[in-house]
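Hi everyone, sorry if this is the wrong subforum. Our group has a chain we'd like a structural model of before ordering constructs, and none of us has done structure prediction before. Sequence below.
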Amino acid sequence: MSALSSASESSMSIPTAGQTRLVIIGATGMVGGYALRYALENAAAGSVTAIVCRKLGISHPKLQEVLHRDFADCSALTEALSD
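Answer:
Right subforum, don't worry. Here is the predicted structure as tokens:
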């Protein structure tokens, strides 16, 4: 299994003018999960990238889930965060 995988590679939404792209690390925790749900419901957020060490178990058109298990080496996240 790759250290980096996307749950919705083909349906990643690109923010339009006036919308924000958010990156949330720790979206499987209590605070991160709340921030993720808030961002997905908020019209100002055009896309949300969640970097997690275990699957979120949710699907949303704005959500790109990046599975990353080794936070001591974040070089594999370059592609996911390049936009």
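For your construct planning: The chain has a mean pLDDT of 80. The two ends are 24 Å apart (CA to CA).
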